[in-house]
Structures are given as structure tokens and as C-alpha cells.
Amino acid sequence: MALLILQFFLALIALALPLRTASVEGDSYKDYPLLAKHFGDHMILQRDRPIPLWGCARPQETISVSAFGHLYKTRASQEGTWEIKLPSQRASIKPEQVTVQSEEKRLALDDILIGDVFLCAGQSNILMARKDTKDCAATKMQSSVPLRIVNIGFGGGAGPYGTAKWTDGRDKAIDNYSAVGTVFAEKLAADIKIPVGIVQCAVGGTAIRDWIDPLRLPEDLAQDRRKMRSTNAYKTYLQGLPSLPARGMIWYQGESDFKQPETYLRLFTIFARDMRCRMGEDTPIFIVQLPALGQSEPYYYDSLMARFREAQTKCQSVGRCYYISTLDVVPPGSDYEPGHWIAPVHLPYKREIGEKLANLALSKIYDIGKTETPQPYQITILKEMVEISISGCGRGLKIHTTASGAADKDNNIVGFTIAGRDRRFHLAKARIVGNDIIVHSDDVPEPAAVRYLWADNAQGSIYTADGLALPPFRTDTWLLTKPYARYGN
Q: Would the pTM of this model clear 0.85, i.e. be above it?
């Protein structure tokens, strides 16, 4: 009777872990590793939170884990999966060993450190390796504080029981990993003085739907389930990753979604909720707003890409989600005049993006520095002029003097358009007055709306005194109109 009761409760536990059991197929467990793939030598575990370990074994097999001076035991489920949660640990650069033993196998993990872990996810731009960039390829990691990275996404072995390897920041192989992620980790580790671990999970060409359990898609988006990639990122990389305690997450994605800006916030909300079930419910998410893309066009056109960037801005409403603007990240020496520069999908300049993300994380998580993305918060129409008040501008606003075409010969800022009730936009003149921007046009005597950098390919020209670019914005809520920018056709 006691055995039957024990088996009943073990079955209940197994039912509570569907993400793990879904990854194990067949009746033989000898070919599956004892531990899931992101556990390995040189790994960094998240400090100050319980540490989950899990893997595969024969059903009902006893598993022993020795870690941090203590021995822990559990029993595998009927489906052949097991989990142990180790007590939380403080940050430490002292190498530790963790051993896991079943009745048939023994695995020893060496050189384990405790620090802060960040998940870097998205599509090809965060997947881009250091060696493929023009501003990271020839540079070595300089941090004296340990930083390490593991790839569990594309190229890292599919599924939770594939193969993955933690790489030290001083190893030459670091050039094969995310440029954005490694630059982020390098700056962060230098400032917080504790080990930083990066878990890279990115797949090129994926839409946000590919990262969501198809069963969680809203009914009105059910038709999109049939459009999802055959190698669904959720099933391949996330379904078997039920728990990954992390200090934060970088999300650099959207190139595959920009033509549907109206649904992105809803999908991101579902995605963020699911990821926080794995990382921790209060885990901050740092979003990379997409940079310039495609052919330069006149600012008075409408733009699908600009509307998608707006959708990314709205993701802040989810809570503990922050974003950086990247329209000022451009190749050095380029000519930015309309019609002359075509921005590629894979801009090979990633250092500035990684550093911006690190500064944002330092501010929001560690209270180091005060990084606030400047944003309009009050719009006032003053007869023929519009006054836009900007928040988060600290010591004030300025024109980016090195930007080609940032201001005309009369020092009017370019990049603004203005429209009346007829909704026809005209190029506008703008000037900075303290923390406000005054916009007007002789062609619009009674203005109703203002837009800034409303284009697929636009370069930021207004910055805070601390060097943060003012992101694109609009004061209207009008529907998309044609003609709109070429890349969005």
C-alpha cells in the first residue's frame, strides 16, 4: 500500500512537469544525458536564488547530487526525468564542483562560479558572432572579472538534452558567440565586479510566434499557428527549458514581425509572461528597438517599420520591460542623406548596442548610473506651433553635431514632420528650448499632429546631454496610409 501511495504522488509530480517530460521519447534512457545541456563545466549559476538541476534517468532511479558541501537525493519520475533544487548561493569567484550520480552514471561538473545570468534571445542580429562584425572581431575581451557564455539556441544542439559548452571570455572561441551578448557581459562584469554568465538562445528568421507555445496563441490568431516555422523555436529550444533563473533578459527580435505591428504587443505580453515563469516573475526584459533598415525615404511618408518600433515602445506597458533606441547606430563615415544609404538587415556594428544595453541594465537592476530613455510626455498645440515636452532628458537636450543632416543651415532640427486635420504631413522646422521641442511649418497653419524620425531608415539627431538618443515617436493615432516607406511595401 505504501508503495502504491508513493507511486501515486510521483505520478502527480510528473504531471506538474510537462515541459520536461515532453522532451523525452522512447523507452530507453541510456542514450540521454544525466543533466540537461546547459549544465556543464565552467558554468555560471544565478546567485541569491534556488538553483534547479534536472536531467534524465531510468524511471524510479535514485539520483544523488553533491554540491556546496552538502548531499541531496531524489528519485526519477515514471517518465524518466528528475529535478533537485539546491539552496541559493552568494556570488563567488571560488570554483566549485557539482557531482551528479545515478545508479548507472556519474557526472562531475568543475569550475562552477556563482554570479548573475542573463538570457540573450531573439533572431539573427543577436545571433551575429563577434567574428562577423566590424567593431568586435579584432578586439579581445578585457574584463578581469569572469564572464562566460553558453549557446543553447541555433548551433548549440537542439533540445534540452543536446550538447552545449560554456566558454570563457578569455578563450579565442568567444569570437563565435553573440557580439551583443559578449559586449554586454564585458561591460556589466567590469562594473558590478561579480561573474556574469550569458545563455544565448537565438534563431535567425524567427517571428515572435515561433517562441510561444502554439496552444497559448489567442483564438483570433489561430490561423497564424499554421504559418509558424516547422522548426518551431518554442518546441526546439524552450519547451524543455522549464526553469532558468536569471537576472535579466535581452530581447533583440522583430525583423520578421514588422509588417504586423498591431499584434506585436499582445504576442509579446504572452511571451514575456511565459519567459518569466522560467526566469523569475520579476525578471527585467531589455528590448532592442530595431535600427535603421532599408532605403532612405522622405520623412513625410508613412512607415511600417516606424509603427513597429512604436509597438516595441509599447511593450514597456508589460512592466519591468525597458528598451533602447538604436537609430543612432550607423556605420562611421556613411552618407545619411535620403536616397544615398541603404541600411542592411544585419548591420555589422554591435558594440554600441551591447554597451547601451549594459548601461540600461546597470541603471535598472543595480542602480548604477541613471539611464532613462527620453520620451515625449506632454503635447501642447500653441496656435501654429506644437510644443513637445520630453521626460528622462536629465541635464537637457542637444543636437547631435556629428550627425550628417541633423540640422539645416538655420540650425533647425531635421527629422520632424507636421500635419493638419487633413492628415497630410509636411517637413517641419524644430528647435530645442530647455527640455521642450518647438515644431512648426509655414505649410501647416493649424497643426494637429507631429512625427519624429517616422521612417524605415532614419538617423537620430536629438540626444540628452548624457548621450541618449530621443527615439522616434508620433502624437497621432491615425491608421496607416500610403504612400509608405519602400521597405514596408
A: yes
